[in-house]
Design goal:
Residues 113-217 form the 4'-phosphopantetheinyl transferase domain. By secondary structure, the protein is α+β, with helices and mostly antiparallel strands. 30% of the residues lie in helices and 28% in strands.
């Protein structure tokens, strides 16, 4: 599903495939009590999503091999749900129907990351207008002509992955209209940031449509 081509070379990732209709709480119940408490009043499907994504994050942290890093240190939440990673680490998590994943990297080489996954299905028509800027519509037609039937969902994922990389650097909201995405046929994209001030003028990313999911990953190196 995921592979190293989506991420910077020194990052580590992990993912799990789950039953879409039957939530499994095993990973949630194995979390640190402080992590469990973040969603303790949620329904089981939310607990399962949360537990699986954080299990992936802890596994990826362990694979980083940073001396002194406690891969089981609780990953708590900051503003707007931003994961609070251990010192010296940046990363991102995602969960959707039947799929959870996380990616992490050392901050010595990667400043911020974003990861988003969605079922490879077209967006509801009433949503497209709020996601796509006028200049992005033509490339959706081009991608559909080239066989990417879920091009609008891909754009949504790219914008979500852009936001996930943006917010830890700025602690500011980034709306769909605040980034212009250049989706390329070779599986890459560039997110041009339209708000000021901005720490970087653009954020680069990669995308795939694979095994029924569309996945977008961003990194500021």
């Amino acid at each position: 599903m995921l592979d190293h081509s989506l991420f910077p070379s020194d990052s580590q990732f992990c993912y799990v495939i789950t039953d879409r209709h039957r939530p499994d709480l095993q990973n949630y119940l194995g979390l640190h009590p402080l992590e469990q408490a973040l969603v303790s009043h949620s329904v089981d499907i939310r607990k399962a999503e949360f537990g699986d994504a954080r299990w992936c994050a802890h596994k990826a942290l362990g694979d980083l091999g940073i001396p002194g890093l406690d891969s089981l240190e609780p990953i708590l939440r900051g503003e707007r749900g931003m994961p609070l990673w251990p010192a010296g680490v940046t990363g991102s998590m995602t969960h959707t129907e039947g799929f959870r994943a996380a990616v992490v990297a050392p901050t010595t080489t990667v400043r911020s990351m974003g990861l988003d996954a969605e079922p490879a299905e077209a967006l509801p028509r009433e949503i497209i207008g709020s996601v796509a800027r006028r200049g992005e519509m033509a490339q959706l037609d081009r991608l559909r002509a080239n066989g990417v039937d879920c091009a609008d969902r891909l754009l949504f994922c790219a914008k979500e992955a852009t936001y996930k990389a943006w917010f830890p650097m700025t602690h500011r909201w980034l709306g769909f209209e605040d980034a212009e995405i250049d989706l390329r046929d070779d599986g890459t994209f560039i997110s041009y940031l339209l708000v000021r001030p901005t720490p970087v003028p653009f954020i680069t990313g990669r995308w795939v449509v694979r095994d029924g999911y569309v996945i977008a990953a961003t990194a500021v190196t």
